[in-house]
Amino acid sequence: MALPSKLAVVVTALASLVLPASAQDYPAHTVRIIVPFAAGGPADVYSRQLAQYLSQALKQPFVVEDQPGAGSIIGTAAVAHSKPDGYTLLAMSNTHTVNESLVPNKPFALMRDFVPIAPINYSDLVMVVHPSVQAKDLKEFIALAKAQPGKLNYASSGTGTPYHMAGELFKSMSGTDILHVPYRGSSGARNDVLGGQVQMMFDAITTMAPNAKAGQVRALATTGAKRSSVLPDVPTVEEAGVPGYETTIWLGLMAPKGTPPAIVEKLNAEIRKAIDQADVKETWAKQGAVPMMMFAAEFGAYLEKDIAKWANVVKTANIKIDQ
User: The pTM is what?
Assistant: First the structure.
């Protein structure tokens, strides 16, 4: 009877050795980062920058795959149903925390089917209009929208995205009626605002600021608590006439539930190293992006708080999914 007991001890000891070894050897082959948004947007751009660093640091390819659709639902569901071995990761944003309350019938639940790895960065949005819009500042735009309820349009990269929620929050807080025009991704939305097919958009300052500086669109306001160093002459939405308004876009990385904690911690450590580099901080600052430094558990708490925050906004502002 003693032999099985000893064998059990040996097996347990071996198991304890194997688990750290598997994490130590990770990654042993290509890692996919699924971006559930269209190419050219902030999630795609910063995921590719991060993938390049991780490929160099961990000596294996980290490959970004864009799988847009349904306001991030399609690509996110694909990751939720993938093997939890650290080789399929999800690039995500506050679209995901919004969708927890805005889209109740999803094929996944964020905090049930995923584990947090690390945040990447955040940036303000900028509210822009096509030059043909007869409004030189935010107060004039609000007056125009109130004089023509339901006649002005605003573009977004899809239902539940930060661009959509920024617009709905603006409508609610400014008392305006502006028609939402959802796209499959931010590039299509941005192009139609630049082309004048849609009058207005809230876009990431990291991607739209160059267009505003070139005069292709008119920047009316930024969405942060203070003015952006990238567009210092543009007032915040609050400054320009909507008290209490503030919103941003942030990005992060998650993995399917069941991914070994040691792998999660390894990825978290490498991501924190990447975004703490002086040249990364300097480049991002010029673009309007700010690194977000958190351990995995901290990021988990941040996600829970953000889910609750947006659930309250969705309920208070009575925001509905576009049919």
Answer: 0.85
